[in-house]
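re the bet — no i am not wrong, look at it urself. input seq straight from the record:
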Amino acid sequence: MSSNAIEGMRPWEQPFWKPARGKSIVLFYLVLIHVLAIAGVILFPLPGLKILGVALVLAAFGGFGTTVCYHRLLAHRTLKLNRFVEQCLIFWAVFNGSGAPASWVAYHRHHHSHTDTPEDISSPKQGGFWWAHLRWLYQSAPADTKKWCPELTGSLYRTWKYAEAPILLLSICCGGIFGWRGFFWIGAIRLVYALHMQCFVNSLTHLNSSEEGDSSRNIWWLGPLQLTAWGENWHKNHHTHAGSARLGLRWWQPDMGWYFIYVMELVGLASNVKRPRTKSA
């Protein structure tokens, strides 16, 4: 197939191995952590309780960073958070592989503005499961941060873009203090796990079979697997009430991010917290 023919395709119609311009480094990162994770599971199928505990704690910190800071605070402005707490959460989100805050927010706002249309960068309705789950990360155009989140292009937030690579290198290698077993489990295996738990929000929670309207849906069993990002699995709730800091609207819908925000509000570190307009049961 000629290069001109490939260029004329929709992103999801292109060969799965071809990254978008400027996205080769993203594909390299994805391949790297998956190769390391597979090697780690083969060489060390059992991590040990200490190493597993450290990996889970780091993944939990990253989950709070993504669901509370990136999603509810920066993308939807559903609360205000103490600046020090905000910057700490950004660090853990970057450490967990969620990327710099401006790009994450730009992609997410783009998604909400064009949900399930051909302009939606991560819709399974257009590109299928694997496009929505993983391929869009390296085959969609780079995030237009100036258009979608100009408030995050200032010096404070821009710094995280330059810090992303060294933080990810630290994230991959930090487990080495526990030896090779720690290197693989606290590094790449944790990052692959965190990656797919986040990606399921784009893929599984948008597989509603309805032909028209919003395809988002709630998936109860996904929540426990997401650790502190438990709450992102109530994705239908989120699309219905995108201006709410609370995603689990019913008492039987656990939402770890909301519990964190509630505690922060109680101790005076969060304010202007927006709640859903519907009465929770």
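see?? The chain has one domain: 25-271. told u. also Residues 48 and 244 are 39 Å apart (CA to CA). so pay up
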